[in-house]
Amino acid sequence: MHKEIVIRVCMGPGGIAAGGKEVLGSFREHLLKAGIFAKLKEKCSSHQVGCLGLCARDVLVEVHINRNKTVYQYVKPDMVERIVSEHISGGKPVEEWLADDTFKTFYGKQMKIVLADCGKVDPEDINSYIYSGGYEPTREVLTSWIPDDVIDEIKTSGLRGRGGAGFPTGLKWELARRSKSEIKYIICNADEGDPGAFMDRAVIEGNPHSVIEGMIIGAFAIGSNKGYVYIRAEYPLAVERLKIALKQAYERRFLGKNIFNTSFSFDIDIKLGAGAFVCGEETALIASIEGQRGMPRPKPPFPISKGLWQRPTVINNVETLANIPYIIRKGAGWYSSFGTEKSKGTKVFALTGKIRNTGLIEVPMGISLREIIYEIGGGIEGGKALKAVQTGGPSGGCIPASMLDLNVDYESLAKAGSIVGSGGMIVLDEDNCMVNMAKYFIQFTQAESCGKCVPCRVGTKRLLEILERITKGQGRDGDIERLERLCNGVKNTSLCGLGQTAPNPILSTIRYFREEYETHIRDKKCPAKVCKDLLIYSIIEEKCKGCGTCMKACPSGAITGDKKKPHKIDPNKCIRCGACFDVCKFKSVGRD
Amino acid sequence: MIKLTIDGKLIEVPAEKTILEAARIAGISIPTLCHHPKLTPFGGCRLCIVEVKGIPRLVTSCTTTVSEGMEVLTSTPDIEDMRKFVLELILSDHPNDCMVCEKSGSCALQELAYKYDIRENEFSGERRIYTKRDGNPFIERDLEKCIMCGRCVKVCDEVQGVEAIDFGNRGFNTKICTSFEEDLDCEFCGQCVAVCPTGALTGKLWAHTGRLDDVKEVNTICPYCGTGCNITVHVKDNEIIRVTSGKETWNEGWLCVKGRFGYKFVSSPERLTKPLIRIVPKTKGKPEVRSQKSEVKKQKEDNFLPITHYSSLFREASWDEALDHVAAKLKEIKTKYGPDAIAGLSSARCTNEENYIFQKFIRAAIGTNNVDHCARL
Amino acid sequence: MNDILLNIIEKYRKKNGNIIFLLQETQEALGYIPKQAIDLFSEELNIAPSRIYGVATFYSQFRLKPTGKNIIVACCGTACHVKGAEKIINGLRKGLELAEDEDTTPDGEFTLEEIACLGTCSFAPVVLVNSAVYGKANINALLKKIGSKRKKSA
Questions:
Q1: Do C50 and B165 touch (CB under 8 A)?
Q2: pTM, whole model, 2 decimals?
Q3: In total, how many domains does chain C have?
Q4: Whether the predicted interface score ipTM is above 0.90
Q5: Across-strand partners of A226?
Q6: Residue pLDDT, tens place only, B312-363
Q7: Class of the A346-429 domain?
Q8: If you measure CA to CA, which chain C residue comes closest to A199?
Q9: Domain encompassing residue B313
Q10: Beta carbons of B167 and A451 less than 8 Å apart
Q11: A–B: how many Cβ contacts below 8 A?
């Protein structure tokens, strides 16, 4: 009997971090040792695939025997031998290492379009993508469609930009098509700068050809012959896989001159970003590709009329482009059957923070936050209470636990004071301080401000200063109002999206967690016990066994006491590092 | 031509004009700091924000071009509120030392702070502190007063073509600097000084000489070369303390290092004020007449030339005597050796008209074509 | 060093590159961007040094000082922040005995860098030691690891 065996090892961002490479190597070694490669010839393949989604359980390994799928979680290289001998040779899966039930709920509510082929195709092998139907949409479009058909199709699908602002993609293409110019450009924005979002990385690492295809189709629609992928240098693997994918696409003549023997020619170049969050902004990105400081310029004129080297330029985000081939393949009607009235299709979110199932998820627009957190995400880690969900990164806001039934789509999130953004979704529990979160984000935007316009350069600095003094117990009366006035000014007068949205995390936390701000300012207390300067450490005498562990751990010599007698903390010497709190086995260090 | 209304006033301006330009044509003023009519728009100071019907956000009028039927409001309570807000932010990161600032009285930022009546600053906080002083001889760079309008960077690139400075770093730490923040080492044309709206860039020679009080402005023409740039000399106590040039001059306010900073010669004690005629000593020994006192003194100090040196033997003369002397000598040479024994070399410091007369004189009066000009050397 | 830089200039001319490309190649080859490189590029390519310096100081990727032998990168992304990245960074700074405003140890062994987000949020907090990923980082284990590196090289 011939067995068809496919082993897929997750080599997404999470898989690699957890040791995916070693696991794959171990599989190859043990399969070879067991003679399975030899016996089954070509029928057995063990390969790397992109993100399988549930990064928290990495390394995830799928074993397919005659198309029956078994999933292992937390796989380490030394576990591979047993999986090979008992399961692949012996036919009996290793029960205790299998992914459990939450694994099923994780996938249950998801709807995968962009990520559908991530985890199935080998990102370094174009054939694998072609076998799954890849480049067929390109062939069809190039050989039998006219550009206006493509634009109509994308418009009908209702696809909106997945990078943040949610501008309708079809409309953008149409405007660029109407711009009169011999030369036009299409740029794929892969400068995923939002801290806490990694879907673009996963898509490029897992299925780079879908992005390339999206670019070819987009270029055809707007009439461009030259494209750039602007990608973060911090993602070396994504860059590597993209390079491989481009090379293979050129070899197959999906790129270059006269693609599919039509008159359409298209080239793609890679440009590496050099570490500037602001370059996710269209005009700054253009400046960066031109080799300048990434300082945005005022719009209008918009890039669709005057972009790269003053030519009409369309800039689409990775996820947006990756949707294109699937929309062409399955039809705009199919695509627009998902989602809400104004937000169609699906959206990929990076679900992280204090949640059980961290990972990449793709859900239909309009799904409720509750479903995402409690069904897909499996609830809060460690049985703590959910406090808020932060969406949209530094440009977004925090949605409080009381609004769990909110639908996740462009309009609803905007109404709640946040944004869909690039799709970061960070779950916060009772141990997270909202003032501290606001400070974190403004610290980030302040450091990433390009410095060109006054409100962003100076305004974000002032916002940070006020939040810093509040979290240090030096908040003043009227600081909340001062913050609000500053936020409002920065939002309304900043030059680009970075400054215009930078106040969002502050405004949304003031909106929903005003008392927490007040407690910090008035009572000089941090209810979540995060703001270190507001904490007072003391030893609870009844519980202290006098073991001396805390004394050893204290870096400032603030703890004194005799053996086996309750110790004491000198509040004047205490630097509030929390070392004693962390090391005490008897929970006898109080923190207030 | 494009028709639009600004503050309810219907105006017609050529296409490609920005809202700001259109407003200025119509005599409506909009405050700006980073805008300069001769430089490409920047859009960084955010003061020129206006409301355009149909656009949800306020737009900067310096970067937005006009379009047919556009309806613009340049001043509403909201807009003025935002302008004041931006000014407060700028001032929160600005030394409050107008009392001793060179620019006081001609500072665009000071003027706006006055207009918007900003006294207390609600947003005071950390201010950039730079202790390093630029060691160049001409341009004082007080970067703490820099508001990052970018005019100096643009003028250096777009007008002068030197690119000595650019933006460095980013965010709050953004700074206008040279490579590795070294001392300025450029042409020192001072165009950057001319366009700086604040006291960040001033002339080192100007320091503490006078600002407004008792300063007389005299319009004249730069004496340095035949280009004839229009300059304004600022005079106090009969001494030139500063040279500037207005935007409306034919040289558009641009000057070179000589015109802008080379004015000290005017009141130099070493300057010749009377013609001198060289005397050839017949016998060795002490000269009969000493050359100008100061020169002699300097030569003594420098131990540069012995006082009896041939070249230093001059005597003062009247203009009539000097000119007669030159005419007689030229005639003598011409008669003896012919006109081609004489050549004329004129100076770039003369005007066109003067140079014309000079060549006419050499050709017609002397009768030779041996005439040239120092600018050709 | 000059040969390396001239090679980069050659490549730049062939590829019709830009300043960022020049700087990335230089850093790749030399580990940082020396003043000498900026001066040479300026001379050979007729680009103002102030402009190159402006670009080099804008992007956080570029370093104008040499780094230590080992590079430790601590992620400060949101997920890492939520899971205590600050503690890790403070611990590393202390453990490495870094002076304030310095990111390289005086002995030139270690450079500590902070990065906005590595995109491995599921393993927060994340630290890279010479590009090996340490997910769910624990400060004591990390310091041990680093300590062993220091001993080895000593």
A1: yes
A2: 0.88
A3: 2
A4: no
A5: A185, A267
A6: 678 889 999 999 999 999 999 999 999 999 999 998 888 888 999 999 999 9
A7: alpha beta
A8: C119
A9: 269-317
A10: yes
A11: 105
